[in-house]
Design a protein that fits this description.
The protein contains 12 helices and 10 strands. It is α/β, with parallel strands linked by helices. It folds into 2 domains: 231 residues, no CATH class; 83 residues, no CATH class. Strands 5-4-1-2-3-8-7-6-9-10 form a 10-stranded mixed beta sheet, sandwiched between helices. Strand 4, helix 2 and strand 5 form a beta-alpha-beta unit. Helix 1 runs parallel beside helix 2, helix 1 runs antiparallel to helix 6 and helix 3 packs across helix 7. The protein binds zinc ion (ZN). Zinc ion binds next to helix 9.
Length: 400
């Protein structure tokens, strides 16, 4: 799969009923393994691979059977992604066999569950409807973090058992391919989850993707994008609700307060690191709600120095503004924490300016270097020609 090769081919490899494995030319072997049977057609690989082909600007060819509804859905999802991101181009998706609609959707209702605020909120809000929780290793926890994966699985298994839901456990190396071409958060994770949902079509007819944001700015999982991937399984983007309101609901649950996992920066031996932006964001919101002391997996004290030093950007800035409003609404206000968060928010444009300047400097340096390399190559070539020409003249036999 290079710039010269304008097609991305995916071919299924022999595997057990609990696996779905394809060879992507030339992106390597991509595998999804589950603790239950998976759909053996290539339908799920439409959402899994289309954004990657869009980033490469090449045609996607699936060498196997794909549901007609998935090809139709793919066109709608592509229009959304290409409308948001200039680097993603609408492309053609083809399959060697197209299956007409046949079987009705399964009865099960799934919800992706990582143990975070959004996951717990969706589980609590839709407890009557959800029959299965889906946990994926290899998405927000890297496959190399064996200890953290095992501890999180233990937590998720306990949550599933306590809430009477069947747990689907998935393990995949998909991000090793997608990270080469796409930003996981901004461009891809909703499509990846929608693909996993399609693989579960033998069991589930509907799958909820917990929402991250309350507004509708462009993001990898979005109320416009996620449902657009619906085919054999209906994909639902759960209701967008402000994070502090979600936490207020989540903090009522003993199970959530025992197992809440919000950190993406945790080392292999940690569960929540307690000092990254995401941990602090959650701790501040719980503090504003008067529930921080109930959270068993987070520190109960917040260091204002750490909050002041936060380099807020994007989503972090949005959530910090929500948190500041919540802190100011507390009956007994924590002025020091308010001041620390307000300072971090005030410094955010400055940090953004520094980041932009460093990026420009770095790219300028790279461009400068490539200019020097180009000059060097051109001069070397010319020099070789001149020297070669002289050698030719010198070695030419004297015709006189
Ligand atoms: Zn953390």
């Amino acid at each position: 799969m290079t710039g010269l090769n304008r097609v991305l081919i995916a071919r299924p490899l022999p595997c057990s009923p609990n696996d779905s494995v394809v060879r992507v030319f030339s992106g390597g072997r991509v595998a999804v393994r589950a603790n239950c049977e998976l759909d053996q057609s290539l339908t799920a690989w439409v959402p899994l691979l289309t954004p990657i082909a869009m980033a490469r600007g090449c045609r996607l060819e699936l060498d196997g059977e794909v549901a007609e509804s998935a090809l139709r859905a793919g066109r709608a999802a592509q229009a959304v992604l290409a409308g948001w991101y200039p680097g993603l181009h609408e492309i053609e998706v083809a399959a060697t066999r197209v299956a007409e609609p046949g079987r009705p959707r399964a009865d099960g209702v799934g919800a992706f569950f990582s143990g975070g605020v959004d996951s717990f909120y969706s589980l609590l809000e839709h407890a009557d409807e959800i029959t299965h929780l889906i946990f994926v290793s290899g998405f927000d926890i890297g496959l190399h973090k064996a200890e953290l994966t095992s501890r999180t699985l233990e937590a998720v298994r306990e949550v599933a058992a306590a809430s009477g839901k069947e747990l689907v456990e998935i393990r995949t190396n998909l991000r090793r391919l997608s990270n080469r071409y796409l930003d996981w958060g901004r461009q891809y994770h909703g499509s990846a989850l929608a693909g996993i949902a399609q693989l579960l079509s033998p069991h589930l007819g509907r799958v909820l993707l917990p929402a991250t944001f309350a507004d509708d700015h462009a993001w990898g999982s979005h109320p416009l994008l996620d449902p657009a991937w619906s085919s054999e399984v209906e994909v639902v983007h759960d209701l967008p609700v402000p994070r502090v309101r979600k936490l207020a609901r989540v903090a009522e649950s003993d199970l959530a307060m025992r197992w809440l996992r919000v950190c993406y920066s945790a080392g292999d031996s940690e569960y929540n690191c307690g000092h990254c932006e995401k941990c602090l964001r959650t701790m501040i919101a719980l503090r504003a709600l008067g529930r921080l002391s109930r959270a068993a997996t987070l520190p109960h004290e917040i260091d204002p120095g750490l909050v002041r030093g936060l380099r807020l950007k994007g989503a972090g800035k949005v959530f910090a503004e929500e948190n500041l409003a919540a802190l100011r609404a507390m009956p007994q206000r924590d002025r020091e924490l308010e001041r620390a968060l307000a300072t971090a928010l005030r410094l955010a444009p400055w940090h953004a300016f520094v980041r932009r300047t460093v990026r420009r400097y770095e790219s300028g340096r790279r461009r400068g270097r490539s200019f020097v390399v180009r000059c060097h190559t051109a001069l070397s070539r010319r020099w070789r020609r001149v020297v070669g020409g002289r050698r030719g003249l010198l070695s030419r036999p004297d015709s006189s």
